[in-house]
Amino acid sequence: MALALHAHPGIETAIFNDERAGAFFALGLAKSTGRPAAVCTTSGSAVANLVPALVEAKACGIPLIALTCDRPRSVRDAGATQCADHLGICHAVVEGNADLADPVITRRALNSLRKQVGKLLQKLGRENTRGPIHINIPLHGELTSMDPDHDWSHPPDLQSLVGPAVRLQPLPKAESDSTTGPVDKLRLTSGLKGLIVVGPDCPIDVNLVSAFAEKTGFPVIADAPSGLRRPAKLRNLICNGDLLAASSSAAQLRPELIIRLGGAPVSHSVHRYLRAQPCKVIRIERRPRVRDFLADQSISLTLPSDHTVAALAAALAPGDSSWAREWRALDDRVNALKTTYLSGLPWGDCKAAWMVCNAPGFDLLHLGNSMAIRHGNLYCAGAEAAQKIMVNRGVSGIDGNIATFLGELRGIGGRGLLLIGDLAAAHDLTGLEATRLAGLGGAICIMNNGGGALFDLLSVSEMPDYERVVRNPMALDFRAIASAFHIPFKRCTTEDELSASLREAPHQSYVSIIEMCVPEKSLKSDLPPMLWSITQT
Ligand SMILES: Cc1ncc(C[n+]2csc(CCOP(=O)(O)OP(=O)(O)O)c2C)c(N)n1
Ligand SMILES: [Mg+2]
Known about the structure:
The chain has 22 helices and 16 strands. The chain is about 40% helix and about 15% strand. It folds into 3 domains: about 160 residues, Rossmann fold, CATH 3.40.50; about 150 residues, Rossmann fold, CATH 3.40.50; about 190 residues, Rossmann fold (3-Layer(aba) Sandwich), CATH 3.40.50. Helix 2 runs parallel beside helix 4 and helix 15 crosses helix 16. Strands 7-6-5-8-9-10 form a 6-stranded parallel beta sheet, covered by helices on one side. Strands 12-11-13-14-16-15 form a 6-stranded parallel beta sheet, sandwiched between helices. Strands 1-2-4-3 form a 4-stranded parallel beta sheet. The protein is of the alpha/beta class. Bound molecules: thiamine diphosphate and magnesium ion (MG). Thiamine diphosphate binds next to helix 18.
């Protein structure tokens, strides 16, 4: 299978030793291109290694295809080696699967196989069932299907048996919504104090969100990965939602209507703010959820058509303009305070992350999980230049972040930056395999703060044995790791060194590693005082 895929002129391949990293790389490709990407494995525990990426893909509706090669059906559950329940392993984390028959070279068998696979692939084309799928592929042969005693050692011209490949037609968008439904139910009118909140993985085109916001004049709390900050085109773009939601001034701002799009906002202060609002809530989402952890009562609008969004905007426009002005004024004030605070900070976690988040010249910025995404959400200023800000927020794993970033970079071409913690980087060292692919440029910026610094901000940090059991400093030698993978490396211990490395990275025709060595406790000493001082003024 691997050789067949590699030889196919219409398929680009990347080879991975670690299936887990390979699957995350494919996830990144699919995320950045919007097109399906497949990962092909051998049998046995190789298949179990796909699960982390499939979980993430399922949580955010990414068309990832798992192609798992299997032994013939006759040896399944019969004690043969390297056999496992592939279908069972993937079942909970895919939208659908096909367990192919043992291969037989007849026109009939091949056509029925194509029908089976075609039906499954249609799922990928439907917006509301989009997500990962699994195709299990039994092959003949004791060790490989090229064993000399088998038909498949001389593959026939399959094309002549089945004709040209079937082109899947993109399906029309699901039209489950109706314009009047939510409007009638909520008695929506113009003049409202409306608030739009956009998290990661916005389910509709961000240009549509922009048009909606412009028409209604509602302020938009846009997370860094919402797609609305770079380029920043909106008049009422609010980039400091995290700080504002925690501030005493914004606590006085009571919306009459909240419209939420995408995954849960990154910041817990925004969660708390949203939960405290007794107002009407509309969720625009890919598929309706049974319950909503951010509001007791809310209405779901599933993949509304462009027409529905426009009609909703028309029903709400214009919103209360003084309300939008209040948000903007607060956002500007908080922005100024934040910038002053950050510029005055000594070298440390926050300073280094701020520099990475605003380094110019990169087409892509991936924010790893743990503190990287939280830093990014706080510091990624709105900018004129377009830049994709990507995250894995489906299930927020610290696994696979390097491979996902490299897959995204391969998908868009161009130059990219990854901001990632030391534990998350350690978790995905095999993802570094992909740095050797041609055409990738930029840097992996590892914040080396001696383990999971995020936990220093939580009350668990007061517990005995916290350092060893929870924070888990690994004291890895990232220079040696880079060298083992033949990756150019820079260690930065000052602002000037980081600044020089970030200036160089957009011109690199390779991916380097920049290790940012910061004082271990700098997050705790810099971030809470910043949050406190800004939110109390
Ligand atoms: C696969 C996985 N394992 C464990 C976790 C729990 N977790 C969340 S943050 C974190 C610490 C990450 O540390 P690091 O990458 O160094 O980032 P920092 O907090 O220092 O910024 C862990 C273990 C997770 N989210 N995903
Ligand atoms: Mg860390």
